[in-house]
Target: Kinesin-like protein
Amino acid sequence: MEIEKEKSVRVAVRVRPLNEREKASPRPSAVSVATKTHQVTVRKKTYTFDRVFGQYATQKDIFKGIVQSVVDEALAGYNCTIFAYGQTGTGKTHTIQGSLSPHDENAGIIPRCVNYIFEKLQATKSEYSVRVSYLQLYNEELIDLLGENKKGKQLKLLENANRGGVYCHNLEEVTTLTASHVFDLLEIGSKNRIMAETLLNDSSSRSHCIFTIRIHSKESSIPGEEMIQIGTLNLVDLAGSECVGRSGARNVRAREAGSINQSLLTLGRVITALVDKLPHIPYRDSKLTRLLQESLGGRAMTTIIATLGPGKC
Ligand SMILES: Nc1ncnc2c1ncn2[C@@H]1O[C@H](COP(=O)(O)OP(=O)(O)OP(=O)(O)O)[C@@H](O)[C@H]1O
Model:
């Protein structure tokens, strides 16, 4: 069943399978899922979402069930964002990125989107180009994961005087014409990401990573008239949400937790304000929401995939 397209913000939940430690534990799982009614029960409390995916859901199920319709919107010229949100180890990176080999069953949302976009463009558009960028946000600091040539050039968020909104100055945006070129870039970006995370001395993500695909295509549905469509798809792997409640953290970890707090809380406030159609949307309160400002408001489509562990250990 397709989920409502009219909604500007949709929330899905994905519960990951038990890991080896959890399989060995005699404690029962605290989370159960009813896919037909879109409900998740956590310790006797039941919550309803736009879609829910249980532990047997495949990467393909996620793509077909919730992502493909979003990519179609981006191909039609709209701004769309998909967030993976959840605690460390619940499957955010597996869901957003997974395997980077496009035909692997574990290929996540990014490689599946890249393949789908190029297949669609090749089949339906006479002229198109695709631009990609890959940005990491750690402690409110911006890091270009594709920016080999721009070492030493500092990234900055600047107001866009011509068309409003905010853009990231000095961010490498690479123009590509084939899916295989994007996969080469993704390999570079994910190596740079692992390197940055190793430097932070932590294998779990304490940063937000945003892979952006901007699709330019020529539309000529009215004879004699040509229109350039520009659609954007942001695929965001958020930092672990458990930092919000973290206490007793000191020095570097306290700064990280504070910065993750600030950006996740602001993201929550922005999304709530958009859903409630409030006059003031607090985009400016964090770099993450400033950066995504153009892709969150208006006709934009926002999808949150909340990842959950099975709740036992
Ligand atoms: N749906 C799933 N099916 C199979 N394995 C999964 C699934 N979700 C997560 N995993 C596995 O669980 C482990 C943790 O997942 P992952 O690294 O994606 O979590 P994360 O939420 O991104 O964590 P962090 O915030 O620490 O980066 C990985 O080994 C991953 O392969």
User: Anything to note?
Assistant: Residues 16-17, 86, 88-94, 204-205, 240, 307 surround adenosine-5'-triphosphate (CB under 6 Å). The domain at 9-308 is CATH 3.40.850.10 (Kinesin). Residues 18 and 49 are 22 Å apart (CA to CA).
